[in-house]
């Protein structure tokens, strides 16, 4: 069993059965052996749920997601191997995170390996996030369903061979595999951030010092327009304004807008505002609110596409030690070379302003 499988097994075990160390076995020797094995484990760390009552409340009371339905995504009816439930989906950025999708594609598991990020979410953002998501059903902030953390010391954690923290979140690409199996047009996606910031990989020596693979991991650009009605646009910007206000108030920067574009299949009326029912899920984890929403799919006003969107990666906070160190380095660099700030070293209010400008720039309003 490889590294990815061990990590997957530890996540699934924590979600479905607990880490196995929460309660002492009646057999003291068995408990000591389990504790000894956990300490010397390289990849399969003992994980626990952090603030489980808060996430359970969000799922059941506000997102209408029952515990049995939620846990079904992490239990395999075809295999007894826990690692088979989660499928690795490869490298998705600079953070060193591991990514998995549940076999039914409803949820993603993302590791949060940096201390500055998982401590920020736990200590600073989790309470306001939970309160906000309970009262803003149309929020574009990605829905986080669980937060897991390592329960104690281990060799794998000490040498960072395995991530110590993970989040379970909704997958707004849910339905893509089924669409592909039907032979529909493949879905397009973009991870959008303001590109006017200083990116060393792109801007130093015109990018000659880094590989194309590295540069391809930078923020995408959407060279098109999302055509919306006035009502759709107003609702979209209302949600973005409220969401980014919350993030700015808690010092978050460098978050992104994950955008999905689905080409509509042939319908009787191509100008209809009703979303293509073949790609719009009507059951959790995407609802409530009832479709259409940016979680389930918004039909463009020109009838060509269905769009989904969510705000991701809001764990980088200016007041944490690592971001402060990066800010100092870029300040010293700018003293000599005058490149300007990076998206991870700017102020929360300034980042919010540029983020909103970017979002407004990709919208075209079609008046009735």
TrEMBL record:
Keyword annotations from UniProtKB, A to Z: ATP-binding, Kinase, Membrane, Nucleotide-binding, Transferase, Transmembrane, Transmembrane helix
Domain of life according to the entry: Eukaryota
GO cellular component: plasma membrane
PIPK domain ranges (all copies): 1-363
UniProt biased composition (Pro residues): 282-292
Pfam (any one): PIP5K
Any one GO BP annotation for this protein: phosphatidylinositol phosphate biosynthetic process
Region (Disordered): 270-294
UniProt key word Nuclease: no
InterPro entries registered for this protein in UniProt: PInositol-4-P-4/5-kinase_C_sf, PInositol-4-P-4/5-kinase_core, PInositol-4-P-5-kinase_N, PInositol-4/5-P-5/4-kinase
Keyword Transferase part of the UniProt annotation: yes
The protein, known as: PIPK domain-containing protein
Lineage per the UniProt record: Eukaryota, Fungi, Dikarya, Ascomycota, Pezizomycotina
